[in-house]
Amino acid sequence: MERSDIKYSQYLQILREELLPAMGCTEPIAMAYAAAKARQTLGAMPDKIDIVISGNIIKNVKSVVVPNTGGLKGIAAAVAAGTVVGDADKQLEVLSFVKPEEIPQIGKFMDECQMTVMKSESGKLLDIDLHMYKGTDSVRLRICDYHTNIVLIEKNGQVLLKKDESAAAGSETDRSVLNVHDILDFAESVCIDDVRDMLERQIEYNLAISEEGLRGNYGASIGKTLLETRGDDVRVRARAQAAAGSDARMSGCELPVVIVSGSGNQGMTASLPVIVYALDMHASREQLLRALCVSNLITIHQKTPIGRLSAFCGAVSAGCGAAAGVAWLLEGTYEAVSATITNTLGMISGTVCDGAKPSCATKIASAVEAGLLGFDLYEKGKALHGGDGILKDDVEKTIESVGQLAREGMRETDEEILDIMLDE
């Protein structure tokens, strides 16, 4: 792919839009960002907040520890943290610079401010609609479709910012330009200096939180357990490093990660197994960066027809993307990568997302293992074939089939999952 090609610039821009730093699970952090921006607009600490959010936001915030809150968890904690100590200018790093002496103010605010949570009926999968009140003053701020996409700000009924929602949803680079063949072409021909900074940051951030997860005692310690019970060969380490990052992040670790498709878990899953394999095989730094182009873009390609939030577990897409990156590192062919994708999706496309929580690390480990098994099948001359279930003869059609399953077929599943989660 030539540097002058329009598709080259589109692929590069997609990576820039996707590989963003974030501290904490992206859904509660998006809520904290919304709250910080709303409080900034209000110009005072509110005494009442109405929180109207989509079901997928509810399920992804409910069980996650919000970083820099002293271990607080859930919707009210995310909104309170953003309101009291959030820096709206930092967007998904809104809680990155909280001082220890500020943390007690968050719990105090939760006790004093009247907060009401309601489920949105907008039909959007990602929707955060905050209404803040202080005396006679009020602010409404709404984010939808992706985590930093503010589409409405009103103060005392006066519109300060308004985006057409359909236009706002399409403001990112068109992901439909992605396909497996061109992703490999881009990865193999991209000028490394064009991607170096963002990929080096992904390596640095995601390795750091993974190592912290292995050192600490976070969540169910899935990463540590894998190493203690399964040995430390490259295959186990690939699963363990990705799981350990999630162990830490879902339990409130304050280290940032580089996300993919709006998710830190997906960002870690797509990158860490590739990094582990590259280091194990003594690949050059350039090979590693090119392999990360493959894994990140394959993950994004799969997630595009599914959407940011779904009943379909995003670890499946990212584990498949990671395996594609490993397949490219070890074999370097379109056949290896496309077969790995098809085999992986034939194994675990039914995994559901029941919210962000510590057990996400188990799904990450399972997804990475399935991806590596998908590559093993290719190496042994075995394969899952089109016509087997939802698989098709063409890898692009298989990705479309999985997208249709996740986007359309699992809508009722999504509602049922939320009903079960809220029935306590």
Q: How many strand elements?
A: 8
Percent in strands: 5-15%
Low-pLDDT segments: none
The overall number of domains is: 2
User: Overall pLDDT, averaged?
Assistant: 93
Compute the gyration radius: what is it? Answer: 21 Å
Order of helices and strands: HEHEHHHEEEEEHHHHHEHHHHHHH
Spatial separation of the terminal alpha carbons: 54 Å
Number of helices: 17
How does the helix and strand content classify structurally?
A: alpha+beta
Shape: globular
Give the biggest sheet. Answer: 6 strands, mixed
> Helicity, in percent?
55-70%
What's this model, at a glance?
The protein has 424 residues and is an alpha+beta fold.
Describe this structure in words.
With 424 residues, this protein is an alpha+beta fold. It folds into 2 domains: 21-169, 60s Ribosomal Protein L30, Chain: A (2-Layer Sandwich), CATH 3.30.1330; 175-422, no CATH class. It is 56% helix and 11% strand. It contains 17 helices and 8 strands. It has helices at residues 6-18, 26-42, 55-61, 75-85, 103-112, 165-169, 180-189, 192-215, 222-230, 234-250, 264-280, 285-303, 314-330, 334-348, 360-379, 395-409, 411-422; strands at 21-23, 48-53, 114-119, 127-134, 137-144, 150-155, 158-162, 256-258. Strands 3-2-4-5-6-7 form a 6-stranded mixed beta sheet. Strands 1-8 form a two-stranded antiparallel sheet. Strand 6 (150-155) and strand 7 form a beta hairpin. Helix 8 packs across helix 10 and helix 10 packs antiparallel against helix 15. The protein is globular and about 70 Å long. The protein starts with 5 loop residues before the first helix and ends with a helix.
